[in-house]
Amino acid sequence: MKVLCGIGGSDDSFRALDRTVERAAVANDDLTIAVVDNEDSETSPDEVADRATAAVDEAGIDAEVRRVEGDPGSRLVEIAETEGFEEIVLGGGHTSPMGKITIGSIAEFVLLNAKTSVTLVR
Amino acid sequence: MSDRGYPDAVADEFPPPPTTFTDREDREIEVRPYEGDDEAREALVEMYDSFDPADRAQGIPPGGEERIREWLEAILPGDCYNVIAWCGDEAAGHATLVPDGDAYELAIFVHQTYQRAGIGTHLIRGLLGHGQANGVEKVWLTVERWNRAAVSLYKKIGFETSDAESFELEMGLRLCPDPDEETDGSGEEVDGPDGDQ
Question: Class of the B19-174 domain?
Answer without folding.
Answer: alpha beta
